[in-house]
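Q: Hi! Curious about what Glutamyl-tRNA reductase looks like structurally. Here's the sequence.
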Amino acid sequence: MWSNLILLHSNDPISNPLDDSRLEVWQTCQRSIAFGDHRLFPITESERFYKGYEVFHGYEAYRFLLEVVSGLRSKLFGESEIQAQFRDRFREEMVTNSTFALSLLRLRDQILEHTKQIRSKYLTGIGRQTYGSVADSYLQKHKSITILGTGKLASSILPYLVSKEKEVRLIGRNQTKLTELQNEFSIKVYHWEDYKPGDEAIVIASSFLPFNWESMIKSSSLILDFRETATNETNNQNYIPLSKILSDLQETDEQIQSVKMDLQFFLTELTREREEEQLHIMNGWEDLLV
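A: Let's find out. The predicted structure is below.
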């Protein structure tokens, strides 16, 4: 069914955005993915890179997307928040104007169905921890918390903290997002330039920090840093980088490696079944221009 699918992938969604009407783009805090159909966006199968993006074709593209949505390519192996982000991005009203809207909705439904199979069969007991629950586990003793950032990561952490009746502040530069999140949660919001941190716990949920904030938060009671590019401040005992967050998770490497081996066989079989279905369909993406 997906022989004409093209998927472009980058681990750097901020500095290298794609802007092309023939592509449908999905951005997360860890990656940027664009979908296309090679009849509308012609890239030969020999082309493996496009403007700094990896290129995946056909069923290879389908498999890669399935691994992403299932949390198999996330830093937090098996996490489920990425599945919700995918579902929300491709709600029907979000793709109505796409040239291949019907096919995108079918792709969404099939990916979500196969993700459900993967989670129930292989990830039960693994990946229950989300970024929000991980943050909550470190912040249980802290009553005053400041979150830096207004993106998807901050949005996923907020429910865990406000439900514990903590004093939560959100700092950012996007007034629209600040207002939206303040309307949704019982929190205080500030622009970067309007807030000076004290000794409260700090959660860094943004890749952007103003130049002086690194020094401003050094006296915080805890700094929980979710940035992939953060530098380990080994001299600061209150600083916890993403590398330590991941290593402190309960799932053992042995468990995860065993699951990964089983999943490779399952994904191969699943892809083969989709390719066999293609033998009965002439045009790959069905009803492309309907």
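A: A fun detail: The chain has two domains: 5-126+254-278, 131-247.
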